[in-house]
């Protein structure tokens, strides 16, 4: 559905009723642009916008179907971008993803949002409260604001993942509450989901702000480059987190193996200690006609003492060897 649509002249918002008529007027005047915002559009809803803007069919198909790879591409005279939005769920430490697709053309910009992550309403309000950027750079100002907002969200999630990783390291290498393999694996999966959103955007963004044909203003190229620097920092952190989490998981599994070996040694030691009196008791419990050992005065007590002595000797031997 169409969430919002407006015409911006000199950075100021004005109403928009007929898309086709407004677009013809803007192109004739060579001033201002049209901004249309859509949320989870169906093919029929998108056709209402497409017939006036004449977007490329391949880009339209991507916008309607959704679940596209992250990219920034040119279709004829239209720039089309697919961005992955992310949202961190504090209660479950999960990362939810969505999509934002942007069409930039001659005197228009169309933003298409899929999913609940990172709504664009605040971006529009922020730009409208400071109209200079809209007046100076038009649709590219919108693109920069959306991109900057998404990358800022990446940086927030980057900090959250860093804290989660510190907590897991403390659990794995501390002595209080051991971490579970499932917790480590789930965080590793979230980092992988985060990487799929952030890393593919790095190279297209660098190519974009290096292209003076698309971004002619040196000031605006500098702002896009600043966003690219922030994104590169996030991607570097993701690679670090992934490698460190792999090491933490390996260390955790090694700790489990060592603990299991230690438990098996203790069990084996106690079995060996228990085997001696069991053996002697089994022999004396047989129905022999002649049990001369037990007929000796105090023979039964001596037998018990011998069993106890052997058990003590075995116990001390296992203690010295570290088995108990």
Strand order of the largest sheet: 2-1-3-7-6-5-4
Count of individual helical segments = 10
H and E order? EEHEHHEEEEHHHHHHH
The CATH superfamily of the largest domain is identified as CorA soluble domain-like
- CATH fold type of the largest domain: Beta Polymerase, domain 2
Query: What percentage of amino acids are in beta strands?
Result: 15-25%
What would you call the structural class? alpha+beta
Question: Main β-sheet, in a few words?
Answer: 7 strands, mixed
**Overall 3D form:** rod-shaped
Portion of residues within helices? 55-70%
Oligomer: single chain
* CATH architecture annotation name of the largest domain: 2-Layer Sandwich
Average the pLDDT over all residues and give the rounded result: 80
Report on this model:
The chain has 324 residues and is α+β, with helices and mostly antiparallel strands. Helices cover 63% and strands 17% of the residues. The chain has helices at 19-29, 43-53, 57-65, 121-129, 132-137, 139-173, 181-210, 218-284, 292-295, 299-321, and strands at residues 2-9, 12-14, 33-39, 71-75, 78-89, 94-105, 108-114. Strands 2-1-3-7-6-5-4 form a seven-stranded mixed β-sheet, with helices on both faces. A hairpin with a 2-residue loop joins strand 6 (94-105) and strand 7. Helix 6 runs parallel beside helix 8 and helix 7 runs antiparallel to helix 8. The mean pLDDT is 80.
Secondary-structure blueprint:
Layout: E1 2-9, E2 12-14, H1 19-29, E3 33-39, H2 43-53, H3 57-65, E4 71-75, E5 78-89, E6 94-105, E7 108-114, H4 121-129, H5 132-137, H6 139-173, H7 181-210, H8 218-284, H9 292-295, H10 299-321
Helix pairs in contact: 6-7, 6-8, 7-8, 8-10
